[in-house]
Design brief:
It contains 14 helices and eight strands. The strands form two sheets. Strands 3-4-5-6-7-8 form a six-stranded parallel sheet. It folds into two domains: 91 residues, DNA polymerase, domain 1 (Orthogonal Bundle); 250 residues, TIM Barrel. It is α/β, with parallel strands linked by helices.
Length: 349
């Protein structure tokens, strides 16, 4: 077995704001409650706004600041005093265990074709998702916020998506660490297999991940036609969480959608559309037998995090474990490719 930790641990001296932010990421990685994560995020914002932070820490005035409580004050104080905060050290010592082969596959992953920001239902801004991707050792990251129909997730209108594309261009021209952000979308597959965004805007994006989010209990025949039409669309690059199932989590379990997986995956193989291995622990999607079927048909795959927060980018370790279990060769996993290779594939599929 291999102890996985793709984040280099912070060592003393550590900036208090950096320590608080890193704690938030590590809590997200282990799927701690949003309430706990947000406590550290709020404290990081509050601490960044304090003039004379060291003085406030040493005189015991931190807890008088809105957004900073006893636990976060202790983190700040220990960091100010030149130590790695105990809370951070404890989280940094926890590791995910993978088989050696799965760890090697995880190390080969260069990017992610399914990640969300606070433009839709994610928990962090574009800039922080980019910072986290770089810290987790990724070369590139596709931002795939939701499309307009998914109002519950604050899906992006055409105007908002255009603005996000512009913001991504700005990030790519201003970052100096080599990380590349790809413009993308998780576009809803509508009832008839059409896509929930204009052809013009989809053509401007680097990546289109398409997923079913509505009428998941549709009869098998129309669901098959719906999904086949979508994956055959030349604008679609990835079929996201194909069954839509949930196997655990706070929102309850959900049975998988019913469809002719052979027909859908054969269309994926024919049109160069990758089948996503969604790494969220509550999804484990596709189920085992469908990964085997897509493998045998000859599909490409994308190991994706479906991250809704920075620390969740490491979820891909679970996807790597499953891909290795079923003998998926690394060269068939598009998220092991360079950004240039991914963009070329996406434009030609």
């Amino acid at each position: 077995m291999h102890s996985l930790d793709s984040l280099d641990p912070l060592v003393a001296p550590v900036d208090p704001v950096v320590a608080l932010t890193r704690i938030a990421w590590l809590l997200e990685r282990t799927r701690e409650s949003t309430y706990r994560v947000e406590a550290f995020r709020r404290a990081a914002v509050a601490a960044a706004g304090i003039d004379g932070l060291s003085h406030a820490a040493r005189t015991g005035g931190l807890t008088n600041v809105r957004g900073i409580g006893n636990t976060t004050a202790a983190v700040i104080t220990q960091a100010v005093n030149g130590a790695v905060p105990d809370y951070l050290a404890s989280l940094q010592s926890a590791h995910t265990e993978l088989t050696d082969d799965a760890a090697a596959l995880f190390d080969a992953l260069r990017g992610d074709l399914h990640a969300h920001t606070n433009w839709s239902d994610g928990g962090a801004p574009l800039s922080e998702m980019a910072d986290a991707a770089q810290a987790f050792g990724q070369d590139w990251l596709a931002i795939t916020d939701h499309s307009p129909r998914l109002t519950v997730a604050n899906g992006l209108s055409a105007e908002r998506l255009e603005q996000q594309i512009a913001d991504i261009d700005t990030i790519n021209t201003t970052r100096s660490d080599g990380l590349r952000i790809l413009s993308g979308i998780e576009v809803d597959i509508l009832d008839d297999g059409s896509l929930d965004q204009s052809e013009e805007l989809l053509a401007r994006l680097d990546i289109v991940t398409a997923s079913v989010h509505s009428k998941l209990k549709m009869d098998a025949a129309p669901m098959t036609a719906r999904m086949t039409a979508a994956v055959s669309n030349p604008r679609v690059n990835v079929l996201g969480h194909c069954t839509g199932r949930r196997v655990l989590g706070g929102r309850g379990r959900r049975a998988p959608s019913e469809f002719d997986a052979r027909q859908v995956f054969e269309a994926c193989a024919e049109h160069g559309t990758a089948v996503e291995i969604n790494s969220r622990p509550e999804r484990v999607d596709p189920p085992d037998e469908l990964i085997e079927l897509a493998r045998d048909i000859g599909c490409l795959f994308a190991i994706d995090s479906d991250a809704h927060a920075p620390g969740q980018l490491e979820f891909k370790a679970f996807g790597a474990q499953r891909a290795e279990q079923f003998g998926i060769a690394a060269n068939r996993i598009v998220t092991t490719w360079t950004a240039d290779a991914v963009i070329e594939w996406a434009a030609s599929s």
